[in-house]
Amino acid sequence: MYKPNDMKQFEGVYTLVLTPFKDDLSVDFKALEAYANYQASQKPQHLFAVCGSAEMNKLTLDERVEIASTVVKNAGNVPVVATANLEPSWYAQLEEIKRIEATGVSGLVFVTKGYGDDQERMFTYLAELSSHSTLPIVLYEYPGTSPHKMTGETYAKLVETGHFVAIKDTTCTMPLIEEKIKIQGKTSVLQANIPYLYDSYVAGARGVCATTTTCGTHLFVKMWSEFCKGERDKAKITHQHICLLDNALTGGFSATAKYLLNLQGIKMNHNTRDGKVLNAQRLRALEVWYDWAKANEIMQ
């Protein structure tokens, strides 16, 4: 659980939790239990259930609630946040918030809901919705509801409400990342872009929330620790390893991440609801890359 009035606790590595699926594409909750426990064992600062990488847009509300509950029960002492405003109507979202809160999560995540072309509407919507929860709220520029990007000005206004503790920034350019960092105050700008991860830390970003954490949390924990200790040269090298992993995952994510988890001993099918299929050649390429990465102590 999060502690009251401690904003530094919202910094660090937010590890994303994938949704394992059975062959019939129903949620494999047994695999999820083991996977959530594994992710927590890597000692990130947070777990993020019901995220974009979990194919949250392909999940029913009942599934999202059960997934959040399952992750909480298997996260040990690691705080869990989960998305809580995916339903289409306002009143359905209020009910969604109540149900996600009841799972025992430590914080909520609100997506920007496609209001990127009307920043005033985005601000009003998020500010009003936040008044219906007492939990800390992380903002998420979720590309699945485009236009999704939030200006620094809008973020500053939301920060002033006192309800929001962090934002997952997906603008993917240093000028826009720095725009939010300049006005983050005591909140945490979390970086989602892998190539700019080190640069964003230097600029003042206070954490990471990226797809590559789904199967490489240990590298992100290592890099964050190195950077916070002032070991910049080591952090740069770890960032290089993260970039290599990120490149290995392209062309079939999240199926690629699920297969790499299998190679690390975390058993789950690499099925997805978004239609991603890995052929034998792609699977072999992942095996070859993993063997090299393990031999070089990059992967576990």
User: What is the structural class?
Assistant: alpha/beta
What strand order characterises the main sheet? 1-2-3-4-5-6-7-8
Number of strands: 8
Q: Please, how many domains?
A: 1
* Uncertain stretches: none
Output the helix-strand order.
EHEHEHEHEHEHEHEHHHH
Helix count, per DSSP?
Answer: 11
Which descriptors would you attach to this protein?
300 residues, alpha/beta, TIM Barrel, 8 strands, 11% strand
Describe this structure in words.
- This protein is an alpha/beta fold.
- It has one domain: Aldolase class I (TIM Barrel).
- The chain contains eleven helices and eight strands.
- The protein has an eight-stranded parallel barrel with strand order 1-2-3-4-5-6-7-8, surrounded by seven helices.
- β3, α3 and β4 form a beta-alpha-beta unit.
- α1 packs across α2 and α4 packs parallel to α5.
- 48% of the residues are buried.
In short:
The chain is 45% helix and 11% strand.
Write the layout of secondary structure elements.
Elements: E1 12-16, H1 29-41, E2 46-49, H2 61-73, E3 80-83, H3 90-101, E4 107-111, H4 119-130, E5 137-140, H5 152-161, E6 164-169, H6 174-182, E7 188-191, H7 197-203, E8 207-208, H8 213-228, H9 232-249, H10 255-263, H11 280-295
Parallel strand pairs: 1-2, 1-8, 2-3, 3-4, 4-5, 5-6, 6-7, 7-8
Helix pairs in contact: 1-2, 4-5, 5-6, 8-9, 10-11
